[in-house]
Amino acid sequence: MPPREQTPPDEWLAGRPRFLAAAGALFTDAEGRVLVVKPHYRDHWLFVGGQLDEGETPEQACRREVKEEIGLDAALGGLLVVDWTQPTRDRPLPLVVFIFDGGTVDPARIRLDRDELDEFRFVSVAASLGLLSANGRRRMPVALDAKRTGTTRYLSAGAE
């Protein structure tokens, strides 16, 4: 049997699926309220975090984004949620989001990046659900439950 021809790596990679990835952190204050941030460029509030840069792991991206957005060089706790979301009209690629436990933080330690964010708030879980995007509203209770139980949770297009 003759040997099979192998596809060159660049051709093989060009045919592979593409997706976006982001990482964020769930922070709470001493009263158990959750931290949400309001970027200039969105109508809704978000977890602290953002897109992974080329070559970054989700943990590295999360730590970088936390430092950039709220000025904390925080050690992250465990992975709480992995959420796979399908492409949309506005985002033609699938998105996988990693949410880590950011722990408890004193609001006085936060130094907001005014170039990217307008505001931050520590709010009740119920109040956060009125501020977050639809995806954020799906992730928040799951992330809090994962933090409570110590079990990483997986979401796929909104379903567990």
Automatic annotation (TrEMBL):
Keywords of this entry: Hydrolase, Magnesium
Named cofactor requirement(s): Mg(2+)
Transmembrane segments: none
GO molecular function terms attached to this record: hydrolase activity
Occurrences of domain Nudix hydrolase (ranges): 17-145
Pfam families hit by this protein: NUDIX
Gene3D superfamilies assigned: Nucleoside Triphosphate Pyrophosphohydrolase (3.90.79.10)
UniProt enzyme class: hydrolase
Entry's EC annotation: 3.6.-.-
PANTHER family: GDP-MANNOSE MANNOSYL HYDROLASE (PTHR43046:SF12)
Stated family: Belongs to the Nudix hydrolase family.
Name of protein: NUDIX hydrolase
Source organism per UniProt: Glycomyces tritici
